[in-house]
Amino acid sequence: MKNDLQTLQLAIELCGIALETPLIPASGTMSKEALGEVAGVYGAILPKTTTPKERAGNPPPRIAETPAGMVNSIGLQNPGIEKFLEGLDDFDLGVPIFVSVAGDAVDEFVALCDCLAGDDRISAVELNLSCPNVEHGGLTFCAGPTSVEEVIGACRAAYPGKPLFAKLTNEGVVANAIAAEESGADALTVINTIPALTIDPESQSVLVRGGLSGPAIKPVALRAVYDVSRAVNIPVIASGGVSTGTDVAEFMLAGATVVQVGTISFVREPGEILREFSEYLDRMGTTASELTGAL
Amino acid sequence: MKNDLQTLQLAIELCGIALETPLIPASGTMSKEALGEVAGVYGAILPKTTTPKERAGNPPPRIAETPAGMVNSIGLQNPGIEKFLEGLDDFDLGVPIFVSVAGDAVDEFVALCDCLAGDDRISAVELNLSCPNVEHGGLTFCAGPTSVEEVIGACRAAYPGKPLFAKLTNEGVVANAIAAEESGADALTVINTIPALTIDPESQSVLVRGGLSGPAIKPVALRAVYDVSRAVNIPVIASGGVSTGTDVAEFMLAGATVVQVGTISFVREPGEILREFSEYLDRMGTTASELTGAL
Amino acid sequence: MEIEDREEIGGYTLLRYSWESAIEPGQFAMARVAGYPVTFDPFLARPFSYYDHDSETASLLFEVRGRGTALLDDARDRIEVSAPLGRGFRIDESRGPAALLGGGIGVAPLKILSRRLNALGVCHDVFLGFADTRYAAVAEDFPGASVATVDGSAGIHGTVLDAVPDLERYEAVYACGPNPMLAAVKRAVGDRVICQLSVEERMGCGNGSCNGCVVPVRDGGYVRSCVEGPVFDAEMLAW
Amino acid sequence: MEIEDREEIGGYTLLRYSWESAIEPGQFAMARVAGYPVTFDPFLARPFSYYDHDSETASLLFEVRGRGTALLDDARDRIEVSAPLGRGFRIDESRGPAALLGGGIGVAPLKILSRRLNALGVCHDVFLGFADTRYAAVAEDFPGASVATVDGSAGIHGTVLDAVPDLERYEAVYACGPNPMLAAVKRAVGDRVICQLSVEERMGCGNGSCNGCVVPVRDGGYVRSCVEGPVFDAEMLAW
Ligand SMILES: Cc1cc2nc3c(=O)[nH]c(=O)nc-3n(C[C@H](O)[C@H](O)[C@H](O)COP(=O)(O)OP(=O)(O)OC[C@H]3O[C@@H](n4cnc5c(N)ncnc54)[C@H](O)[C@@H]3O)c2cc1C
Ligand SMILES: Cc1cc2nc3c(=O)[nH]c(=O)nc-3n(C[C@H](O)[C@H](O)[C@H](O)COP(=O)(O)OP(=O)(O)OC[C@H]3O[C@@H](n4cnc5c(N)ncnc54)[C@H](O)[C@@H]3O)c2cc1C
Ligand SMILES: Cc1cc2nc3c(=O)[nH]c(=O)nc-3n(C[C@H](O)[C@H](O)[C@H](O)COP(=O)(O)O)c2cc1C
Ligand SMILES: Cc1cc2nc3c(=O)[nH]c(=O)nc-3n(C[C@H](O)[C@H](O)[C@H](O)COP(=O)(O)O)c2cc1C
Ligand code: FES
Ligand code: FES
């Protein structure tokens, strides 16, 4: 897929992990079934968020199209950490595997980290902090710096020695980013979907209440990445609306070290995005690793 | 423009003000020059935000296109309240005039309200709370409930007897909405643009840092309107991504009493949107006033 | 994909394009008019069952509902179409006769299915239900099919199930249509015989990635209709 | 608007459509391929100076830069075009000879301007600067024009100002091109004579509503180039 020159051009380091490309799939947007199409494209693999126990997810309709985007409310459907780890080898594409976890209380996060701590197959853990926190009246773990510090501090202790990423939502992102860095996160994933709602005017009912993703949110995510990367000293992993090769460049210019490809992979081959990004680097006579924050 | 049946179909009441249609222009998106095209379309007129003194605004580039939207950073260019009031009669289309004001400190808001309090030509005032507040380290007046209460409380006293609207940003909108209601706002405009950034990958520089508007943000605004209208007992004025007649319906179903037409007016005739909305009402056999919250 | 041919069949539109690889009856494609760099809006592709495939040409039959299908209806030269997706009908050659039931645009996968059944020598009857005569026009493409319309303007007055005189005589039932119709078919057929239903859910990706297209299953929870379906054994579904 | 005719002139594309109402030289239109219900992306229309107008047909000449112009370049049947917008060139009939300076696609408004000057009997010379010979092809549409190219592949080697042998002899200078070129023209012309510049700013609405298209003016602050311009008296501009 890549020749030697491209290998040099695209290689990047994230928290000491060597990645062949700066692209990784955004959690929840790439299934095992789609792995075949992305060999050589992604620098690491990041499966859908896993919770301690199996979750059935929300009843349909779960998705609705919006202008240049979509709203989803999947409800973290997943088989639970145990089954997940049983099937983890299916995700082996010869690149590092990052694992996304979420719980609804601090001890759930800790229990998840315990399960992952000894596993050699896993290179890093991403904490999905956008889930409702039962101990804080259903506000998310991103509701404020205190809540962020509490969960990351606990996970840091439970998951020693390997990189821990904190995935933050857009609301209050800079304050939460600072708190996450202080409590021991090694990198920050910025941002998750933006709370949104769709209504069907014909049936006059709510269609989907969930999170907005896709090209529509790119400028919001870009701002968050820009602001966060100026507020902290740890790497930023961009997520939100990345859809083209120049989008990847824009997020890296804004300050991201690696870039997650999410919703767009439903409608474009991620390989196309990498190709465009590589063409951009050629055109500019630069490399991926030089691009981060080169604004 | 409208026949009798349409008049009945479209009429709406907002804080005791009778409006011929539930559409009003969003502040900052309709100039005097464009007034000719909207006679009969808007139920009230709402000019661009006025500040105490003239503002030159930001240097260009001020706008950038994004997927299904745009980012702007106009910087509240306006001639100041005095000149604004001198030219106010130009906005007389025979429908109520609402005036949007902003200051960078509470006493500026109060001074603006003082100027408007006695003016018969004005039916209501919209406080644009998204501006940086110099007294709170540059955070906006929407930064939190305390700040919202302070400014609305002061304006309520300075602008007695006529409706006072508070225009809120998306971040923290429900808490701010409750605070605004408690401190005396008569209606809430929800939402303003969403903080965003665009980067030019060719020149590798920031293009525009500003606010995202247009169809892209519709699902976010819809969620805010839905949540706010369930949290307060005062009318909600929707703003954010309204682009079609069914969008108007969706916002009213979500809980809005009237709907602001903003960015889309740069690319579509507002009259088209009203026509589509009227067709929708025909199809559903309902009227605008029955639609609010009819979910 | 180059559109080779475009045809209006009553209320539906038929698009043909060249496709030589295998397609299983009941599989679908994700299609749209154009994506990047042309546009990100409309954003998602739309799922369509294959209507027919004759080793050189595949065809999609569709009904204009919203914006995505309206644009496909306007398309002249090219559309973006994925490779065949999902699990189609599982045909047991030893079981016959079979009944093919289509409700509205649910007629779509029955043509290619009927072609396969013929090739396998499984005898079968086709029953089609439509809103009115305009949509029923497509029935001409199914010689010998029994037709029902809700308004009685063509064929029997009633639903597709009303068009089946003797459901008991079939050893296999294959159905496609709106989910309420499928639920009715499932109830009518019972668990006597093979009953496979092609369900219709909103889809995001079509390849199992988004978990957006789920249907509730008997054993609890949800499964993705784009990879585990769209054709399900009726007994597996919770409705 | 129905596209009546489409032509490639070197690196540029010319679109003609029927338009009978008045157009002032220097006015522009907001154009794009399609809006709602087809798409909201690309979102904004793009500004284009009128290239020519002969009482029945208006034409736009454009260069493909990004996505908006690429789509216009692909457009076959119809495009969305506004009515004429902005303030064009203010011609003082008593002042001649005039020099018309175009840089790159800034050539666009000079054709319709030259036509008007001819009608008013104002004698004038046309000077055009381009990147290379491919773009210079449009100069054939301006008989007698002097041409410069940056790479020297056609006409004089240099910028449009290098193509003007004797700037002092003109009593009026009308220019259009990239803003840096316009600033150079302003400096070169000084305040001796009429000097009007058609500026290029990003536009949102084209009708004065968004305040997006401003240029800095001498007296401080900014004015909107879509209503106060796009043609400004050079002395009014801060650059
Ligand atoms: C496996 C499968 C096979 C299908 N085969 C065909 C076919 O052969 N021919 C055909 O005409 N249609 C088929 N459909 C339905 C088709 O996908 C929808 O009609 C289409 O997506 C509507 O798109 P739109 O842009 O026109 O409508 P939109 O504007 O998106 O929505 C209009 C209406 O269509 C419904 N709808 C939207 N998206 C979907 C969706 N993905 N699935 C079901 N309903 C939806 C909405 O509820 C809404 O009422 C199939 C659907 C599935 C899941
Ligand atoms: C009054 C006026 C008259 C114009 N007349 C013509 C004309 O006759 N022919 C012609 O080809 N072009 C003309 N332009 C420039 C034309 O508007 C831009 O080339 C076009 O908007 C680019 O759109 P795009 O989608 O291709 O590029 P985008 O993808 O939007 O951007 C590509 C490049 O074009 C620049 N650009 C984008 N939008 C504008 C804009 N509104 N104004 C200036 N630069 C922009 C960007 O900085 C970027 O470098 C005119 C501009 C103005 C303001
Ligand atoms: C269908 C869908 C499912 C998602 N599931 C998860 C998830 O399980 N965990 C998570 O952290 N983020 C999840 N996300 C958020 C994405 O990882 C990503 O952060 C977000 O969609 C923004 O990026 P995008 O615009 O590129 O999609 C999901 C997004 C979508 C669209
Ligand atoms: C160019 C531009 C200028 C704006 N100026 C103002 C303003 O002066 N005051 C204000 O309250 N909102 C202003 N807004 C915000 C709009 O009023 C509106 O709330 C926002 O754009 C979201 O709605 P929309 O998506 O329909 O445009 C401006 C928006 C745009 C695009
Ligand atoms: S459509 Fe995405 S999982 Fe089925
Ligand atoms: S383009 Fe909007 S004010 Fe000029």
Structural class of chain C: alpha/beta
CATH topology description of the largest domain in chain C: Rossmann fold
Largest beta sheet: strand ordering of chain C:
10-9-8-7-11-12-15
> What bound compounds does this protein have?
flavin-adenine dinucleotide, flavin mononucleotide, FE2/S2 (inorganic) cluster
Spatial order of strands in the largest sheet of chain A: 3-13-12-9-8-7-6
Tell me the name of the CATH class of chain A: Alpha Beta
Radius of gyration of chain A, taken over Cα atoms and rounded to an integer in Å: 18 Å
Alpha-carbon Rg of chain C, integer = 17 Å
Structure, described:
The complex is a heterotetramer, with 2 copies of chain A (295 residues) and 2 copies of chain C (239 residues). Chain A has 295 residues and is α/β, with parallel strands linked by helices. Chain A has one domain (4-57, 77-195, 214-291): TIM Barrel (Alpha-Beta Barrel). Chain A is built from 9 helices and 13 strands. Chain A has helices at residues 4-10, 81-86, 106-117, 145-158, 173-182, 218-231, 245-254, 270-284, 288-291, and strands at 12-14, 17-19, 23-25, 63-66, 69-72, 97-101, 122-128, 164-168, 187-190, 194-200, 205-213, 236-238, 256-261. In chain A, strands 3-13-12-9-8-7-6 form a 7-stranded parallel sheet. A 4-stranded antiparallel sheet of chain A has the order 4-5-11-10, with no helix packed on it. In chain A, strands 1-2 form a two-stranded antiparallel sheet. In chain A, strand 7, helix 4 (145-158) and strand 8 form a beta-alpha-beta unit. The radius of gyration of chain A is 18 Å and the shape is globular. In chain A, 59% of the residues are buried. With 239 residues, chain C is α/β, with parallel strands linked by helices. Chain C has 2 domains: 3-81, Elongation Factor Tu (Ef-tu), domain 3 (Beta Barrel), CATH 2.40.30; 98-200, 3-Layer(aba) Sandwich (Rossmann fold). In chain C, the strands form 3 sheets. Chain C has a 7-stranded mixed sheet with strand order 10-9-8-7-11-12-15, with helices on both faces. Chain C has a 6-stranded antiparallel sheet with strand order 1-2-5-4-3-6. In chain C, strands 13-14 form a two-stranded antiparallel ribbon. The longest helix of chain C has 13 residues, at 108-120. Chain C is globular and about 55 Å long. The model of chain C has no long low-confidence stretch (mean pLDDT 95). At the A-B interface, strand 10, strand 11, helix 6 and helix 7 of A face strand 10, strand 11, helix 6 and helix 7 of B. The structure holds flavin-adenine dinucleotide (2 copies), flavin mononucleotide (FMN) (2 copies) and FE2/S2 (inorganic) cluster (2 copies). Residues 203-206, 208-213, 224, 226 of chain D line the site of one FE2/S2 (inorganic) cluster.
